[in-house]
Amino acid sequence: MQNYPNPFNQSTSISFQVPTQCKVILKVYDIHGVEVATLVNQPVDAGQETGLFDAGNLTDGTYYYRLQADKYTETRKFLLIR
After folding, report:
1. How many Å apart are CA 78 and CA 57, to the nearest integer?
2. pLDDT tens digits for 34-56?
3. In the chain, how long is the greatest CA-to-CA distance?
4. pTM attached to this predicted model
5. Which of 37, 46, 63, 69 has its CA 20 to 30 A from that of 28?
6. Res 32: pLDDT
7. Binning pLDDT at 50, 70 and 90, where does residue 66 land?
């Protein structure tokens, strides 16, 4: 799912669903592809989960988050505006 809110000021939540228990990796990257945060890196149970991203130490701009769960990978863009 897309993060909410987007654009965001200080923090935003990223929700996702997995159909079965699996290892999930959810990371945030800056516009240059540099990893700035790891929100999830562990097995999660089936169902909906939410990762909270606090951007208190980052500058305004475009960021990307990447979700990997088993063989599924998705990348989405979001915007930090102060």
Report:
1. 16
2. 999 999 999 999 999 999 999 99
3. 37
4. 0.92
5. 46
6. 97
7. very high
Cα 21 to Cα 29: distance, rounded to the nearest angstrom: 25
Residue 12 near residue 65 (C-beta atoms within 8 A): no
List CB contacts of 32: < 8 A, sequence separation 6 or more: none
Task: Tell me which residue of 38, 74, 76, 78 sits closest to 62, measured CA to CA.
Answer: 78
Amino acid at 69: A
Domains of the chain in start order, with CATH, are 11-80 (2.60.40.3080)
CA pair distance 48, 37, nearest whole angstrom: 21
What was the pLDDT predicted at 1? Answer: 86
Residue 35 Ramachandran class (φ > 0 left, ψ -120 to 50 alpha, else beta):
beta
